[in-house]
Specification:
By secondary structure, this protein is mainly beta. The chain has a single domain, classed as Beta Barrel (Porin). Helices cover about 10% and strands about 65% of the residues. The chain contains one helix and eight strands. It has an eight-stranded antiparallel beta barrel.
């Protein structure tokens, strides 16, 4: 009887210990069904290349002038963003994001849809993550555009967003975020007019690369 009791007690202790280990190793944060709200600020550099063609026609002497250009401009990039994430699986979330972007030439806005995966390290307060997204922006002003105002009339630039960083948990539902981010924007511009004296048209292709460092906070619900 004592032997049976000893065996049962031993099994109970082993099972209890195993259960505690399992409980500690289970994912506690960024689980399926969780919501995450993020606020961030980026600082970095942007490089914008504008390639275009201008055609001028003068009716009084029936002449036409054809001109091509290729300019590259570099500048400082600043960004303020807000995002909402929903975890469709453990660690995997979809994150709509809205950003206000600042350049030397002016401002623009971007709307993105990101897919983010947050890695869980048991009993650690550091959570590495990666993200990849796609979105639209209403343009980056350029001193070389024939009609820069046209860029603000619609979301006409396609945007690819990629990043990798760390979430440092300092409260049970709040984390400090650090991220290295890359964005690529591509789009085109067109402008034309005509009157009795002639006509003018300009078309351009815009490609922008942005490298930045992001700091922010993440609130987990």
């Amino acid at each position: 009887m004592k032997r049976i009791f000893f065996v049962l007690a031993t099994l109970l202790i082993i099972t209890s210990g195993y259960a505690q280990v399992n409980e500690k190793s289970e994912r506690q944060f960024y689980k399926q069904g969780d919501w995450e709200f993020g606020f961030s600020s980026n600082i970095g550099s942007s490089s914008t290349q504008t390639k275009g063609t201008s055609i001028s026609y003068y009716s009084y002497d029936n002449t036409q002038y054809y001109y091509t250009y290729d300019y590259t401009g570099n500048g400082i990039y600043l960004n303020l963003g807000v995002s909402t994430g929903f975890y469709i699986f453990n660690g995997l979330s979809i994150e709509p994001e809205f950003t206000i972007n600042s350049y030397i030439e002016g401002f623009s806005v971007s709307i993105l849809g990101n897919l983010c995966y947050t890695l869980y390290l048991p009993q650690k307060k550091i959570f590495p993550y990666v993200k990849l997204g796609y979105g639209l922006s209403n343009g980056i002003p350029s001193n070389y555009d024939s009609n820069p105002g046209d860029q603000f009339e619609s979301l006409d630039l396609k945007l690819i967003d990629a990043g990798a960083g760390l979430k440092l948990m300092y409260f049970p539902s709040m984390a400090f975020k650090m991220e290295i981010n890359y964005r690529s924007l591509k789009g085109s511009n067109g402008y034309s007019y005509s009157d009795q004296s002639g006509s003018y048209s300009d078309t351009s292709e815009i490609t922008t690369s942005i490298f930045s460092v992001s700091l922010g906070i993440s609130i987990l619900l």
